[in-house]
Sequence to fold (782 residues):
Amino acid sequence: MEWIDHVILLSSGLIVLSILVGLVSTRFGAPLLLVFLILGMLAGEDGPGGIQFSNFYVAYTVGSLALAIILFDGGLRTERKDFRDVLAPAATLSSVGVVITAAITGLAAKWFMGIGWIEGLLVGAIVASTDAAAVFFLLSVRGVRLRGRLRATLEVEAGLNDPMAVFLTITFLTILQTGAASPLDTAQTLMTHAIVQLLGGVVFGVLGGSLLLAIVNRLTLSVGLYPVLAVAGGLFVFAAAQTFGASGFLAVYLAGYVFGRRRHKATQVIERFTDGMAWLAQIAMFLILGLLITPSKLLPMLAASIGIAAVLILVARPVAGFLCLWPYKYSTREIGFISWVGLRGAVPIYLGTIPILAGIPGSQEWFSVVYMVVITSLVVQGWTIGLAGRWLHVVLPPRPAAPPRVDIDLPHDIGKDMLAYTVQPGSLAMRRSMARLPLPDEVALVSIIRDGEIRNASELEHLAPGDDVLLLTTQEHVALLDRVFGTKDGARDTAVDLLGEFVFASDTPTGAVAAMYDVKVPANQRGVPLGQFMETHLLTRPSAGKRLRLGAIELIVAETRKDRITRVAIELEPMEGSIRRFDPALIWMRSVLWLPLETRLIRLLPKVPKPVWWRR
Amino acid sequence: MGTVPLTNGFAMEIQHLLSPDSVYSGLKASSKRQALQELAERASTVTGIPAREILETILGRERLGTTGVGQGVAIPHGRLEKINRLYGLFARLDDPIDFESIDDQPVDLIFMLLAPESAGADHLKALAKVSRLLRDRAMCDKLRGADGPGALYALLTQNPAQTNAA
Fold:
């Protein structure tokens, strides 16, 4: 049994080494995942490690497990607000976009590799999905902050497009194997597959996530067991969906999302655990995939691989990005950035093993190509992510340090979070009197601890630095509270971001403000109160900080009460390309053609009963 | 880290808006209206526009919403047909007055900005510039401590790179 010790020694040693080397590599900005991959290669048969490993089954199993965990963790972390805002564009990008990417890249593959149509499309499908973990790891390492919508779009896209790529791959593979005779059969196979995979994935994900949530909330376990239960539950959903022919990847991502939507008693400990698990999964997957490949076998396909990678990066992804996002009013810069950071990661390599396992002739060659396409993408795009963001002006100034906030898990889920802040010198909380603290209705001040003693809020006139404040709040106000209790250092930009220059009551006529700042508004909208104007044209539920571009200025929701806007701020010099742009013609068209119907629809919306996991 | 440029072309500077003789320290007023009237009269001598007309424009803007932006600062502004460039006036009050500011703090620093009807983007740039300048708490503290109009003017027009290291 000595070999088992050797296996453990080798694998743990490789993981430790990966982390250490990764730490060094971030100093010069090398994409971390590439480092893991190269370490795997070095340990393999062509490198000094000399480990013989060509077991595609093991690679596939580890890959499945790792991806399921990464997607579950990704789902857990997706913000509900962002998710709803970007769901439509992200879903388009990860369905239609993946098909377009796969098709164009497939054509390139057919041409560069001299293979058949279906084979080419199979290769295209394999490399069609993006890697969220890779993108966000790189962004955070460089200290690059993206505007909310951009970040969320990339994140949700990456969560949703893996299932699509998996499904396309399986579909083309099935066609290859069964040799679909006529185009009609092919189309039918595709459609049936799509419906079963996607619908099944959604059903399994939503049901599984809700069930998991119910279980975690009902059971009283030792704290350490909650995350284990959650991860096991997520994997169970994944495997169950796969067993029934549905997309396990979609299911596990949605299960994570549904499960993470409501705060529950173990939110903290579970998130910390899955974060670590996701890291381990990334490292293990890339190491194994590095081990799996024999670099010397890659060389013959080098030219074809680079050609395909070039088409993918320079043609397929930008075309898909533009076609999918343009209807959602993304600016050219945003589309440009999203197109550039379509980073490929482990999914394509993992998908590349499937044809090999299925015993398709020539699939070893395809695998080499896929492998090199991913490496090219990691090197070229991964290394230039920060540069692209700055060049396209889509990055935000670095965020001031977050205030010292502690989240407290409550024994029962009450739909609110308990937060504790230490009041910072110079914070807004300190400068204002207790009575005038800008706390929304949904936020309750529970208690104030000063010098180790609990003080009654009504007795204190001012907060002092060092006071600990306990608050009960809904999740959506956490960002506001961070600003209230945080320091004001470097706050100029934050303040501009948050408040804009001037504030108006919501009943100020839109036309008057527009005339003042030289903005054009259609005649039939000029008499509309500013608040109502924003509510109508925002297209999402208004919340503080939401912005609407109007000509050269931006309107900002400064304050809401029960979903109605009560105050509106304006920013005179907004950053370019940040948000939905509304030119007068568009506003006029909406107000004449669509608005009467839409207003009625919006009124209907809240009456639709919402699933339990959605409510909060 | 790199910062995001806020303007692409011409950078609006305070000295383009404000001349040294449009800066006043120790203005006396007991109400918002009175302070604005004092400033309107001073603006009238520079622009040649009747003070009443200027005051009406400024008060018209105040009726839409206060320009008291908080921390004791107000930036009243308006657009006039008959002027041909941007005019700025700055005054520090001896005694702070109620300005219906968004944070309810009394106001003692007032920057009035008058723009021609045709100014368009320049008007917005100038307002944004003034707003950013006076949002800086350190700058406001210095303005409150400065000795006379000359010192105020020097502070207002100094290179922002020297004040905002962050």
